[in-house]
Amino acid sequence: MVEQSDRAPLLDWEEVPPAELAPSVPSPETGDAIQSGLSSYPAEGSVGADFSLNRSPARPNSVTAVPGESAHSPYEQYSGPGGDASATDEEGDCAFHGLSVRDRRITGSGWEEKDQIVAVFVVTFDTRSGNMIEWCLPQDVNLEGVEFKSMASGSHRISSDFIYFRKGCYFGLACFANMPVESELERGARMKSVGILSPSYTLLYRYMHFLENQVRHQLQCPGQYSPLEAFYEDKKAVLPPGGNGLVTACPTSALGPIVNRCMHPEMKITHPAGCMSQFIRFFGEQIMVLWKFALLRKRILIFSPPPVGVVCYRVYCCCCLANVSIPGMGMSVPEFRPFFYINVADITALEAEPSYVACTTEKIFEEKKELYDVYIDNQNVKTHRESLQPLLRLNSADREKYRKLCEQRQMLLYSQEVDGDCASSEEDLFILFFMEQNNRIFQTLSELAGSADPTLTAEHMRAMGLDPQGDRGFLVDLLEIYGIDVMLVIDNPCCPQCCLGELM
Prior knowledge:
alpha/beta, five-stranded mixed β-sheet
């Protein structure tokens, strides 16, 4: 007789050659664990878009223990939805930075990124005390405020959600669930979140499925923490002594065709990079407005009622619009950092941030105009700053760029359908489109600033894909923010060579 275990199937990855891909049969221990309340459930906050068009030559959807460790590991093989593979390519080069080569280990199957889990916790809603931390490891970790970050305001109206957030120098991911119960003390509903903290947000998606399982388990069997204890012992970070805990900024130069090879189609539902196509389809032409605000490093706040998981992905996508792969470019400007979900407890932190992207479910933020430059409510993008008002208007160059983007997407879909081309994806196309656009602008400006005649004309602007008149204010701000020393000259009817001044 197999002894029942409440240990969760943790996620150590090994690539399995396609020829060996076969449905995985759970071990008796894993099967018992699933029967004991650790089975997966659908998260309402998950991106619900159709991913059938993305035919990535990706790794098989299989998860097995790392060779050499299985004899000592209490975790059994696991395969299924959410069992995401390690986000590394054939050479172990991660498409989303956040860990250096020193933070990876070599296994029999190649490179694998080391786990960097700083804390694991359970948050519950108490009818008398409100949100409170029920349990955590390690017990001396500072989790002040996490009880509000991992259970978004208004979550009582939904059954499940997932939330990315920032806590000091760490990033977190929490899965929330709301279960009806026949209890007057709990007022008919039991609500909990199970979450983790890490120095980087780029690998948190790997544990989405585990957290979803565990929050359901905590709702059904409160107080049984052994799976979480085992998880923390297996995945806890070994941080450098006295580390500065730098916050990871949005990936830049590492983004390329490698993105597609690093993700399962299933992973694109839960990995932030997998929502770029949905993000752009949601905003339509307005994406060009967001692109300009992102390049100018403005403070962008996105409002949405719960569920907030998909909105956290929009935060990430906004950051990706500002990617530049030219070495050294943008070193003098503020980092464009994702805050993900915020609440009123983050007001003090936001006051000190010169540039960020965040989302919230609290409408009160709209009134606190000193905290943001750009406010987004659904598809409505607005700004209270008079100097930024002209950037809200689309010009001919904006529409032309969006037309080219849609045209390239249609060509890609046609190639995938007719020619069976699986080498590229929509995600690659969108990310690289904006990176190449940004590179073209900054490469032109850098070369011009170093030339004998640093005069920027209308022809230069057209070559950069900008409108000489409609984008004049945008370019003036761009030159000033990035400290590029050129002379901007724009033709107009009254003065063919009207000098607007030299920007240092």
